[in-house]
């Protein structure tokens, strides 16, 4: 893995922040479209893969299908459609290696600030590396930093936790040496992480309890998509993948739309699915009937019904109650019951973070994110030459990430064709009401949305939740739509730039 030294004057046509699924994908799109442009990926950690390298808990896997979580340009050839974390990491690593993208990654480079100068049409990006602060410049800042704090997850303050004699772990910092064989494990939470960890630990632990304050919708689906594998065998990797991708987009869109329009029907379908897989007489309504409607929060998947199977087999249970406090030997519940525990897993969520905590400044004025509005869910009002990736919450993240990259390529071509060097979204309409960037009821989203940019009620300020609509907007929609404003560099600067250009550094 490369760690080329950086000089303080280094300039890149594009700087990408983050070498996760999105950053590697963005680099792939850009280098394919513009092989001569310079770019680097600045990555705070010492490894690529982001989420898929960080999370190491038992059973870590996708909770959406790999034909849509995979890139549009690189077929997923694994047999399993709901894939394991290590397989997804390998896929990202292979994508980076095959295109030589890994040579452009600067590991251990945390971006702390970025300052835009309209006069120079340049971002100056401040980076911490090896205890030093360096600066780089770029024409386009492309932020693929994910959406949460990497250093630690969310853990509520549980009363008495300090007196607990067992081990407490958070899924985001899973100790490789944790031995839970023959131990009593309590997993606090009911989101995708808890639903993954519980059946994965069930094989080894003496007993695993999923302790939830309130239930979540869980749908059992096949871990392997037999039709996808048949299509691939029949049509080849590329075409088979493309057909399955559309099949899955259509299916997930239909399920989402049905959930929004006919919530009672979906509730009943999901309940019936759970009843079929749980032991006779199981209290389904207490443990698997949420208070909200399907897709108010992300729907969790149980590949091959693994969670339900674990409950049926014994050794795994679900408790729906509130925590009164920890004791020396376990957790005391509001109902008065005490759950004995040797290991407690706090699958209590993430701490959201916008743009990797980068402080943005435009012409010396700090950007207050909640005062900005997201344009097409990928740029910010009043912030020039800035693109970011935030994927879907109701479908695979990469569907949006790929579209953002495709749009960015179109945007750069548009700038080239017209001799522009700056573009900035401007919201001067009075008929656009503010909306939360992520209109999602999950607690971890609600806790932090006030720190994020806003979205708007009308196009192009709406945060799209439909891949087919976004596809039309981002792949085919007009670039010059009135909301995006363009600017040419003044002639005097163009002439000066030709003499001593910070934009003419060594090409990578
Ligand atoms: C456990 C888990 C499972 C998930 N499963 C799914 C799923 O099945 N389907 C789905 O669609 N989504 C899923 N998601 C959402 C998931 O995060 C995305 O699918 C996807 O991995 C995001 O990729 P990314 O590259 O945008 O962000 P990340 O994977 O978060 O990568 C961001 C990278 O940016 C780096 N970075 C951040 N800030 C800075 C900075 N200031 N300077 C330099 N580098 C920085 C980070 O170190 C990291 O490497 C899951 C999330 C989690 C946590």
Automatic annotation (TrEMBL):
Record InterPro entries: FAD-binding_MO, FAD/NAD-bd_sf, Flavin_mOase-like
- Keywords, comma-separated and alphabetical: FAD, Flavoprotein, Monooxygenase, Oxidoreductase
Q: Which SUPFAM superfamilies match?
A: FAD/NAD(P)-binding domain
Q: Is Flavoprotein there in the keyword field?
A: yes
Q: Which residues form the signal peptide?
A: none
Cofactor entry:
FAD
Keyword Metal-binding appears in the UniProt entry? no
Please give the family membership noted in the entry: Belongs to the FAD-binding monooxygenase family.
What is the name of the protein in this document? NAD(P)/FAD-dependent oxidoreductase
